[in-house]
Amino acid sequence: MLVSVIVPTWNSLAHVTGLVDDWFVAQVPGIRLVIIDDGSEDGTLQYLATRAELQDLLFIRQDNLGPGAARNLGLHSVDTPLVAFADVDDIVNWRELAAAADFMMVHTAVDVLTCPIGDAKLPEAGPRLAEATGGERLKFLADRMAVWGRIYRTSFIRHLAPVFPTTRAAEDVVATVRIADAASTIASLPNSFYSHRLSDASLTRRDNYSPLALESLVLLGGLPIDRVLKLYALGASAKYFALRGEMKAAVRTMLIAGRSLYQARRSTPG
Questions:
Q1: What is the pLDDT of residues 163-176, one digit of tens each?
Q2: Which domains does the chain have, with CATH numbers?
């Protein structure tokens, strides 16, 4: 196996069956599907048990601890050199994922590889490898502050363990900023292996998303990492809330950024 695709799920049986069936029908070698059942009560675990005969399917049960904890458990449980993360209701092009994984196996110095999401296009027409300077790290965040559509070298990302906070929303923002801060070499490919399937049930469309996300952003503000990356992520999050018309959340995020900057200046000698 080259790459494990870690998928948390909670009470999403219809999406789980679709994902497993799609992966099984594709029959692309080198890909392990790792599903972490986050305490579902809709028959998900029972369904996965019926598919236990699938050699490259790994499923694990945990109490309802949230998607961040589920991804951390999945990362701890895999033995492949590469990992990727997916949401259970999104779409994975398994053949393009395998091709991207092959690229990572050839370019062994690359910590993380980015591919476009859906029909989006990367600025470069071909493969691109770059040392992770400050500018490259900002470019990495500017492309997206989410873990989707990327492949990570397992040995690299495990150095950050636990990668995800155990909050209930925007935990991948924290993880992505930490990854950008720690990466040594970043690469990109022009071909997409991941697409979103937006629905009204998505967490980002729920009324309680903002207070849940703010818990993650408070954690981000306190992290001992590059303050430029941190402030960029907080500023982009504030803009996101403002575009949603959630001005209180936007102001709260800017206050988190201001507090983080103040504390960084106080701790800087001279």
A1: 999 999 999 999 99
A2: 3-195 (3.90.550.10), 207-265 (no CATH)
